[in-house]
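U., I forgot to send this yesterday:
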Amino acid sequence: MNMHSERPASGLTRGQASESDIDTPLHVEDSRGKAAGSFNKDALAIMLKAPVPGNVKTRLSPPLTQEEAAQLYRCFIEDVFIKAAGLKGVDLYAFCAPEGGGADALAGVVSPGVSTFPQEGEDLGARMRNVFKSLFDKGHKKVSIIGTDSPDMPVEYIRSAFTLLDEASLVLGPAKDGGYYLIAMNSLFETVFDGISWSTGAVLEQTIEKAKQASIAFKLLPLWHDIDTYEDLALLRGSVDAPVSSKYLEATSKNSSFS
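Result:
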């Protein structure tokens, strides 16, 4: 999700979903053998948009058509959920931005067995705050949020975030453009979302400063990247961490004007 790319459309906010709105994440037995009606202490929230042409990955068009950019973003989503499905002992949630039809436009996109909810709030920080509050209110002890702009992010980074929450209260995954690709907490610290210049290269720096001012112990994951521009696509070609996206790029480059 880079917490600074493409308008704040991948988070949640003040309009906090009540506990009655956020049901147990898995309503049926899923592929990991999770019993219906129960939940784990760790939760991973994936913030995403509906893959509607003209609404997602607009900086890739041109050279991609709007339809190709939307289909590629759909592949991003699939890669992220494939990755997340391999996390044992972690409940998955999807939170969809209202643009492009919102959650209603995600039929067949989000993995089966994952509960989908709308993002709510005025800006990205408020939206993320609301996600954290909703899942902590549900009873989860550790909550991590990622987006879908880094489909090739190693799954080990997500695992590390949950592990690091045993020794710190806040974990951030720094992105190369000055934002962050992951944020995790073991309790809700609202101050890290206040007064942040969203959609700028100062997001990570300002967030760290907020944590220091509030004496919040934090840890940083390795630096990673978002896939936002045509130049970034080179990072996905042949990637074993984003096989669906990589395969689509390979196929599209053979039948398109871009390569």
